[in-house]
Design goal:
The chain folds into 2 domains: 1-40, no CATH class; 41-232, TIM Barrel (Alpha-Beta Barrel), CATH 3.20.20. It contains 10 helices and 10 strands. It has helices spanning 55-60, 70-75, 79-84, 88-92, 104-109, 136-146, 164-171, 173-176, 210-215, 218-232; strands at 12-18, 25-31, 34-38, 66-69, 98-101, 114-117, 120-124, 131-134, 150-151, 203-204.
């Protein structure tokens, strides 16, 4: 059964077909810059370009959406410069949908270069060592300048090894920070009714051992993650 998208919504999703035997489904995401059939292969253009593949070639192979990275674009060329070209679509000469992730994965992958606190993440640039700070609010400002169709809030990957409880709680962060009408500049969200506690204690990055994880309180990092996500999309107008 097909679900008709809401015509007034900047983003909408409809189911085109279902498999009665496996529950697999095919769908269509509607965005201001075109439709995205799902499931979809999304080429990665981390620095606003897919390496060795031009926009014409991407169109020729049927790419319907490209992913770019907020953290790397903040470092260079900078979101203000991208905005002068009309956002990523003009900067990349790509008229189709674009998704920007939040830089949250770099919180994990660049663990030796960052410091995590309740206010956000402070990095040392892997390019020149300059200090870079990402907060939920700042990430939204950067992604607004980049002008992607689909944007992601600042998130934090759970550590490995991780307890099942903390892993499931971090996975629920996406629902706590779903933007409503983000493409229209509306940053309201469905916010968790449970308020996250805050502390001023900073946690330096390290790769925990199994013993460290077993001794730690699994909700501490989860509470911090939820607090950051809720701040990115405050409840109400």
């Amino acid at each position: 059964m097909s679900q008709t998208p809401t015509e007034s919504a900047a983003l909408s999703f409809e189911i085109i077909a279902r498999c009665a035997q496996t529950a697999a489904r095919a769908g269509m995401v509607h965005t201001p810059h075109g439709d995205i059939p799902t499931p979809v292969f999304m080429p990665v253009g981390t620095h606003a370009t897919v390496k060795a593949v031009g926009p014409d070639d991407l169109e020729a192979i049927g790419a319907s959406i490209i992913l770019s990275n907020t953290y790397h674009l903040l470092l260079r060329p900078g979101p203000e410069l991208v905005a002068r070209f009309g956002g990523l679509h003009g900067f990349m000469r790509w008229p189709h949908p674009i998704l920007t992730d939040s830089g949250g994965f770099q919180v994990f992958s660049l663990g030796k270069l960052r410091e995590l606190s309740d206010d956000g993440v402070r990095f040392r640039s892997h390019l020149d060592g300059a200090e870079v700070t990402l907060t939920p609010e700042r990430v939204m400002e950067i992604e607004a300048l980049l002008g992607a169709d689909i944007i992601l809030p600042l998130d934090v990957c759970p550590p490995y090894p991780s307890t099942p409880e903390s892993a499931r709680a971090c996975a629920r962060l996406a629902d706590a920070g779903i933007p409503l009408g983000a493409a229209n500049g509306n940053t309201r969200c469905r916010r968790s009714s449970a308020s996250a506690s805050r502390s001023s204690r900073r946690v330096r990055s390290s790769r925990p051992s199994t013993r460290d994880v077993a001794r730690s309180k699994p909700r501490t990092a989860v509470t911090r993650c939820r607090s950051l996500t809720n701040r990115a999309f405050p409840q109400g107008d």
